[in-house]
Automatic annotation (TrEMBL):
Domain Thiolase N-terminal: residue ranges: 30-276
Organism, scientific name: Zasmidium cellare (Wine cellar mold)
Pfam name, any one: Thiolase_C
Cofactor: K(+)
Protein known as: 3-ketoacyl-CoA thiolase
NCBIfam families: AcCoA-C-Actrans (TIGR01930)
Pathway recorded for this protein: Lipid metabolism; fatty acid metabolism
Keywords from the named record: Acyltransferase, Transferase
Keyword Metal-binding assigned: no
CDD domains (UniProt xref): thiolase (cd00751)
Family label: Belongs to the thiolase-like superfamily. Thiolase family.
Span of domain Thiolase C-terminal: 285-404
Reactions it catalyzes: an acyl-CoA + acetyl-CoA = a 3-oxoacyl-CoA + CoA
Length: 408
């Protein structure tokens, strides 16, 4: 076969790239038809300080029911991602009934540390894909103002005898210091990263970029009804201010209140179904869920999880992080891990957390995995980008990542 004939045949039968294949639309695709979140409010002082997990779950489900333009009886299952409350499954079921979903709608919870919301999304997506359900709702919620203990007691002696197992008891702040020291992430790098996160979040809020993500909710604060409509974001953060803060976790440490994720409360939700079902019901299609990956690593440096989970995920689909991915949402648990992940993955910082991240916006653990989807799809719509990757590090040494395609 001549080179000219090969060229003609290639033109007539172009081989789709891995990215192009993901952009194709098929009836069995799992799609997102609604993506919303509550405002993010400051721990112990913000508008959600008196709201409980069952209360916020009720309100986000009320918003889902009001906005999804579906008979709630069509929803087969709801999954609540939450980290710190062992009663989350009870709350999800009861809140669904109180929000107007019938008793035929099932409910459960998922808990995998900071990926709990993303894990809930993957659970519902897999149920849809397998045919177990037709329509489902994934929620992520965390009310850190409730102050549940992280660990009620130490592990048993047999577990503590294994160093890596014992490292699962390290606080997240300690693991941040481990990452900073082991990988030489300086205090200045962390502070400058944090200031940029604050700047981006301030810019996004003032420009109204978050508006299509948010649903207003009314809650009780100090005994009075309060309607919250926007995130509680600190304006005017400068490097000089952040650089003055004392280390939070060790006397000679590099992580501070200014370069660590804000402690906040909030909830987010997505509705998922197959594309064929969405078209049958006349539902708007915001984006497509492609798939997720989980990776494990030493607990003492848990923050580097995205550097393992993202390549693992992209390799499954033949994607190149730099050429094929448009937006990357990586949870900023601490600036130490965010800087390390950005630099190790050689990410274009303009693609990473373009509206700021958890340092400025906050990190309600169970909410984060869904909040990143909601924010990422909104940003993709605004900028007309296509391929979104979300990722986060997880307590006890793990990372998770997922791919979504914007169709707005």
């Amino acid at each position: 076969m001549t080179d000219r004939l090969k060229s003609v045949l290639t033109h007539l039968n172009p081989i789709a790239s891995p990215r192009d294949k993901l952009l194709q639309k098929n009836p069995d695709d799992v799609v997102i038809t609604l993506a919303i979140r509550t405002p993010l409010c400051k721990y112990k002082t913000g508008a959600l300080k008196d709201t409980t997990l069952d209360g916020i779950t009720l309100r986000i489900l009320q918003a889902v029911r009001a906005k999804m333009n579906l008979d709630p009886a069509l929803v087969d299952d709801i999954c609540l991602g939450n980290v710190r409350d062992g009663q989350a499954a009870y709350y999800c079921r009861a809140a669904a009934l109180a929000a107007g979903f019938p008793n035929t709608t099932a409910a459960h919870s998922s808990s995998r540390f900071c990926s709990s919301g993303l894990t809930a999304t993957a659970h519902i997506a897999n149920e849809v894909s397998s045919g177990l359900i037709d329509i489902g709702v994934a929620i992520g919620a965390e009310m850190l103002s409730e102050g549940n203990d992280r660990l009620a007691r130490p592990f048993v002696e047999e577990i503590l005898a294994n160093q890596e197992a014992a490292d699962c008891m390290l606080t997240m702040g300690q693991t941040s210091e481990n990452v900073a020291k082991q990988f030489n992430v300086s205090r200045e790098e962390q502070d400058r990263y944090a200031v940029e996160s604050y700047r981006r979040a301030e810019t996004a809020k003032k420009a109204g970029w978050f508006n299509d993500e948010l649903v207003p909710i009314t809650v009780k604060k100090d005994g009075q009804d309060v309607t919250i409509t926007e995130d509680e974001v600190r304006y005017g953060t400068t490097y000089e201010k952040v650089a003055k803060l004392k280390p939070a976790f060790a006397e000679d440490g590099r992580s501070t209140a200014g370069n660590s994720s804000q402690i906040t409360d909030g909830a987010a939700a997505v509705v998922l179904m197959k594309r064929s079902k969405a078209l049958e019901l006349g539902q708007p299609i915001l984006g497509k869920y492609v798939g997720a990956a989980i990776a494990g690593l030493p607990p003492r440096i848990m923050g580097i999880g995205p550097t393992l989970a993202i390549p693992k995920l992209l390799s499954r689909y033949g994607l190149d992080l730099h050429k094929d991915v448009d937006i990357v949402e990586i949870n900023e648990a601490f600036a130490s891990m965010a800087v390390y992940c950005r630099d190790t993955l050689q990410l274009d910082w303009n693609k990473m957390n373009p509206r700021g991240g958890a340092i400025a916006l906050g990190h309600p653990f169970g909410m984060t995995g869904v909040r990143q989807i909601v924010t990422g799809l909104s940003e993709a719509k605004r900028t007309q980008k296509k391929v979104l990757v979300t990722s986060m590090c997880l307590g006890t040494g793990m990372g998770m990542a997922a791919i979504f395609i914007n169709e707005q």
